[in-house]
Amino acid sequence: MSNDWKPRTKAVHMGSRRSQYNEVSEAMFLTQGFIYDSAEQAEARFQSLTDDEFIYARYGNPTVRMFEDRIAGMLGYEDCFACTSGMAAVSGALTALLKAGDHVVAARALFGSCLYVLEDILGRFGVEVTLIDGTDNAAWDAAIRPDTRMVFFESISNPTLEVVDMRHVVNAAHAVGALVLADDAMATPVFSYARECGADIAIISTTKHVDGQGRLLGGAICGSKELVRGPIEAYMKHTGGAMNPFTAWTHLKALETIDLRVRAQADAALQLAQALDGHPMLSAVRYPTHPSHPQHELALTQAPSAGTVLAIEVKGGKEACFKFLNALEIVSISNNFADAKSIATHPATTTHQRLPQDQKDTLGISPGLVRLSAGLEDVSDLIADLKQALDRAG
Ligand SMILES: *Cc1c(COP(=O)(O)O)cnc(C)c1O
What we know:
Helix content: 40-55%
CATH class of the largest domain: Alpha Beta
CATH architecture of the largest domain: 3-Layer(aba) Sandwich
Structural class: alpha/beta
Low-confidence stretches: none
Strand content: 5-15%
CATH topology of the largest domain: Aspartate Aminotransferase, domain 2
Mean pLDDT: 96
Bound molecules: pyridoxal-5'-phosphate
């Protein structure tokens, strides 16, 4: 029955496990271990575990399991392993599923730490990685080979908001038997289309929209039971990347409101794009489902909304851009996104500072580029703040 619920209902109820007290709010089981009734029971649990048995929190915990079932249900996947951070999820999934000699094709427009894992770490262990322009279907077709084992991309890229044609890439990958891993952080759990488009695994940084209030780091690897409770769980439980119960409990409470929050923030992001489009101080406004985005038709075929983040390009380079940022009164300068508080980020000098200039140029991370994360403030206040700051930059 719970599998037939709509995502919004799943976000409130799915995966609940009640103790003997029948509590309303999910319990936080802040425990590392579990006591056995007998030596025989301990022996049996170390042989095999049923769904409701636990032995050690690095392997699993009731509160964490509630969160795993709930987020997997929302995204439409069979199962999930919850991790200490989004990067623990990305690096864990990649390392669990790859071996020396494997070939991976990935979109070049990736979060900096993902690029490090792919190029530096996997390269050291003999995995061959081909980086391509993720918006170019012909480039995917050309790069995917009969021996390609995996393709990896961000459904919507951070910070330039490029969109991958997920159905096309999934078909090309599955034609050669490669697994598809989508880093789904920007698409948001509410508007995620990874499952619908056939991605084998969706990885989310739950630090972003799941927490949504700037508190805790977390990550989730969602996929089939076979992959998640097979190679992924084996790798994660032995290498120590399991989410802690406090984070899982906070995330469970946050999932109760995620649908309301993300819809309001996504609506605000689109309204900001509409209000700023054509502003004389801006050379570009980018939000995937807004008509000014070069891929907006593709974006709309994949999801009704493109999430809570937009990008703008301020005219006048770094100097004008810094004047704009420093003039903001409500929007904070920071480097996270998906927070209830609106945030402006200057990728060229912060999150992507270390990227060589030619790579910044290829990815479109210009001195005027600002990533804006729409929060839960009144949208008219946000528009007024951004406009007054642009006036002062000009
Ligand atoms: C934030 C982010 C990550 C990393 O998540 P953490 O929780 O910070 O480890 C990975 N990929 C994308 C696209 C992100 O936005």
